Amino acid sequence: MLNSLKKAFGGSDDTRPSAGKKGDISREKSAEFYEKAKNYFPGGVNSPVRAFKSVYGTPLFIERGDGCFLWDADGNQFIDFCCSWGPLILGHNHPKIREKVTKTLAKGLSFGAPTALENELAELILKNNRYIEKIRFVSSGTEAVMSAIRLARGYTGRDKIIKFEGCYHGHSDALLVKAGSGLVTFGETSSAGVPKAFADETIVIPLNDKTALETAFANFKEQIAAVIIEGIPSNNGLLIQESAYIQSLRDITKANGSLLIFDEVITGFRLGFEGAAAHYDVQPDIITYGKIIGGGMPVGAYGASTELMRLISPDGGVYQAGTLSGNPVAMAAGIAQLTELRTSNFYKNLNTKTEEFADAIQRYAKAKNYRVNVLNVGSIFWFAFTDKAHIRAASDIDPASMEYYKTFHRELLNRGIYLGPSGYEVGFVSAAHSKIELEKAKRAIFESLDEVFRHKPAV
Ligand SMILES: *Cc1c(COP(=O)(O)O)cnc(C)c1O
Predict the structure, then answer these.
(1) CA torsion sign, 262 to 296 to 25 to 448?
(2) Does ligand 1 have an atom closer than 6 angstroms to the CB of 297?
(3) Residues 297-313: b if buried by 16+ CB within 10 A, e if exposed
(4) Of 72, 80, 209, 263, which one is the catalytic site residue?
(5) pLDDT of the chain along its 459 residues, tens only?
(6) Quick one: which of 206, 224, 287, 405 is 20 to 30 A from 41 by CA?
(7) What kind and span of H or E run contains 364?
(8) What is the pTM of this model?
(9) Does domain 95-341 have CATH number 2.40.30.60?
(10) CATH for 3-93+345-454, among 3.40.50.1000, 3.40.50.970, 3.90.1150.10, 1.10.10.10?
(11) Under 8 Å CB-to-CB from 239, ≥6 apart: which residues?
(12) Ligand 1 centroid vs 257 CA: distance in angstroms?
């Protein structure tokens, strides 16, 4: 999602060299819908990365999804590895979620008053998560992060936050900030409409760089409310951090009276039920959730210790509210999904399956001497068109490598595989991806890699 920011403003026009041997799928209906949509929405979409600005063609309009499959308006069928950008860890149209949601919506859609469903989802989460004691439900990841930042500022009485280049935290003003020219500087806004004064409160530093971190704390002593990092940065490629580095974030924040926020909107309930906190065994001060927590419905949440959460209104002075927060239908979807995630070996099976999938592709690419690195953690994977072994910071990614992805994406669509329409986006495997479909997907990926490297030189 991070790079959709750049792409939304400077996207490529569609110059389509002819497809590989396979030929292009029919996209007539989708193209028709897209033409219409352009009359209604900026860029024809309601979220920028959907606009296919960094791949060939125009957006596919989706008709329905079931299990690991998607069908578009032209009747093309795809094995889906985008999974609505992460929420659908059980795949599309899961019967248990559908049943629970259907039952709940028959009683009304929203009351603006508490329901027992909120208790049920909170209990399911808090009883099985050692890292938070209290939680507040909101309606998106953006809202969760925005509220977590406010809580950190309210608690510390400080204004500045440190974020990392290559991490996306939603589109709130404080976080639409990119690195300035120096190593440790105030950020520059990455969107028009964000006041400079806001960007001045956000310090942007590179990932995996202890010196930059220490310099930031030395330069802004006693001004830093919080350091925020994605559990595993997955919005600008997959930038897997070393445990020791994450521990250093914990140590330096503690030593300076600042809070550590894990933005687990992707990693929460994805790496395991307790997300990245358990993955590293590091206790953050505040954790944000989204995506999976709502089972495909719009839900976000932030959680922390009882001591910290006491500051949130109406108990405390940090104001945060929402007309549709804790919406019963959304809670029902979350309960049904998270209940499935608690079944034994859920994550072991999912993660093993994904690892085997990624390893097989990596072996194929290696045997063919293709310059592609298949990164994987849990059920997240990412194709990096590079021969670098470690990709830990945004600067480790060569923007020119995205040309490879562009061809790859088209070849995959032509072979019935749906991945996010940008090379910076990660893929997700869901519990609904069976061995058979993963085998099919592998073959399609092998063929697509062959096409990608047919014209481009191997190393
Ligand atoms: C998706 C995402 C967000 C924003 O969530 P929305 O529901 O799109 O507002 C925030 N942080 C991270 C890490 C995300 O991946």
Answers:
(1) positive
(2) no
(3) bbbbbbbbeeebbebbe
(4) 263
(5) 565 454 443 344 444 556 777 889 999 999 999 999 999 999 999 999 999 999 999 999 999 999 999 999 999 999 999 999 999 999 999 999 999 999 999 999 999 999 999 999 999 999 999 999 999 999 999 999 999 999 999 999 999 999 999 999 999 999 999 877 666 667 788 899 999 999 999 999 999 999 999 999 999 999 999 999 999 999 999 999 999 999 999 999 999 999 999 999 999 999 999 999 999 999 999 999 999 999 999 999 999 999 999 999 999 999 999 999 999 999 999 999 999 999 999 999 999 999 999 999 999 999 999 999 999 999 999 999 998 889 999 999 999 999 999 999 999 999 999 999 999 999 999 999 999 999 999 999 999 999 999 976 554
(6) 405
(7) helix 346-367
(8) 0.95
(9) no
(10) 3.90.1150.10
(11) 166, 207, 208, 232, 233, 391, 392, 393, 394, 396
(12) 27
Helix (H) / strand (E) element for 445: namely helix 435-455
Instruction: Assess whether 263 carries a catalytic annotation.
Output: yes
Q: Determine the atom of ligand 1 nearest the C-alpha atom of 170.
A: 4
